[in-house]
Amino acid sequence: MTLSKQKLRQRINSINSTMKITKAMELIAKVKLQKQRDFMEKNREYASILKATVNEIISRNTHSENQYLIEKDSPVKLTYVFSSDMGLCGGYNSNMLKLIETVIKKEDPIILIGKKQRSWLLNRNYNVINSEMSSDNIDYELIKGLADIGIEKYINNEISGIQVLYTEFVNTVTFEPRLETLLPCLETGEKKYREKNVETIFEPDEDTVLNEVMPMMIQNVLYSTWIQTKTAEHGSRRMAMETATDNAEELSEELLLKYNQARQAAITQEITEIVSGADAL
């Protein structure tokens, strides 16, 4: 059905108003993305050192009975789930939900950080034992407290392992949901953050150092995970709003062309009627 000029103008104005909003959201997400990426890079060096230390201890294979290296006798695993607080970020949240359905059993305890997935999880009877409603107001002390909950459950044999589900920031256009195992601890894959052919001496012994370092590493991994999740969220929102702005601009141009064609046809019709009337006289 052909729209009238008035309806076309209304739609053009509406689309242009929406385009201003999506453009503003794109710019805000872009600024937040840059800030969050800088934050992520500053945390990376410390995380690398911790992981390298754990790797070196594990690779020596003298402490296979350490409490952090053995899978506990429990039917459930604890999962930390990092989600966003808002929508309008493309497939960010839906991709996370698909992975949750695949890798988490409904009886497995979940510690959730972020608002967006909470109602979805509860409506499907997932076992959410702790929920931080906002992922924006997170600091290291809060992450440390959440990490200690999982570590205590693991040491007390209440869970067989700890894993974290989050969205990895690969680059400014690629964001991938990922599941990472924290406990029982295997080698982290981190290269040794020190000179080659230098042997580290751990005092009083490797097992004691591992017991001290592992809680620190788990806390830092969760903190780094939160940083990556927020970075990926801002990046995904920036890309989604950029796409929305481009689509709105394209649609506005198409409707403006139709409006001009309708206006031209109306003027042509009026001229034709005037000429026809003059000829009749």
In a nutshell, what does this entry contain?
This protein is α/β, with parallel strands linked by helices.
Note the topology.
Elements: H1 5-59, E1 78-82, H2 92-103, E2 109-113, H3 118-123, E3 127-132, H4 140-155, E4 162-171, E5 174-183, H5 206-280
Parallel strand pairs: 1-2, 1-4, 2-3
Antiparallel strand pairs: 4-5
Structural features, described:
With 281 residues, the chain is of the alpha/beta class. The protein has a single domain, classed as Pyruvate Kinase, Chain: A, domain 1, CATH 3.40.1380.10. The protein contains five helices and five strands; from the N terminus they run αβαβαβαββα. The protein has a five-stranded mixed β-sheet with strand order 3-2-1-4-5, sandwiched between helices. A hairpin with a 2-residue loop joins strand 4 and strand 5. The chain is elongated and about 110 Å long. About 2% of the residues have low confidence.
